[in-house]
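The instructor's notes for this session suggest beginning with a concrete chain rather than abstract definitions. Hand out the sequence below and ask the class to guess, before any prediction is shown, which regions might be ordered.
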Amino acid sequence: MRKLVVFLQGWGPLGAFCLAVLDSAGVPLPASVDVLLIAVAATNPGLAMLSAGLSVLGSAIGSMFLFSIARKGGQMYLERKASSPKAMKFREWFARYGLATVFVPALVPIIPLPLKVFVLSAGALGVKPLHFLGVVLVARVLRYYGLALLGMRLGEGAWPWLRSHALDLGLAALVLFAAIYASMRWFDARRVRYS
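After discussion, reveal the predicted structure:
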């Protein structure tokens, strides 16, 4: 896989698109899109926004592919693909917190949460495709355009900056998760009260 990532990095924005499709479709390529975006933004700032846009598009395509497979296979597919004890814990999180579990790991680059299990859970448990796609798009737009801007501003120092601020990003993600969850609960309570 490492050779593939290096090969696609030479393609610039098109490589970012291909990596984003593969990564979001479940091929394990941790942080490869993030690294490529920062590299393109640092070395060729004129292509940074194009790379970010193509990464968002690629991530949406890959995520919808994985989501659709899980949706067609349903619960049985989820049990076959995500049945380890750790994956079961993440599935329980999805059952409890819903699409917030997709949004946060799709948004924050330095978080050790596997987005794949949450995407599979969303598909298998019947989340509406447009709701799922909307969450993925918002998270990926913020993440990829943010990384492109960071790469343009800090150059090769962007990745070390992200690592040095991992705790801050983790805390921000936790606060964001709590806010999203509280908002979802509030909207659900209002819907029940007025229906």
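Then share the key points. The first helix runs from residue 2 to 9. Residues 40 and 127 are 35 Å apart (CA to CA).
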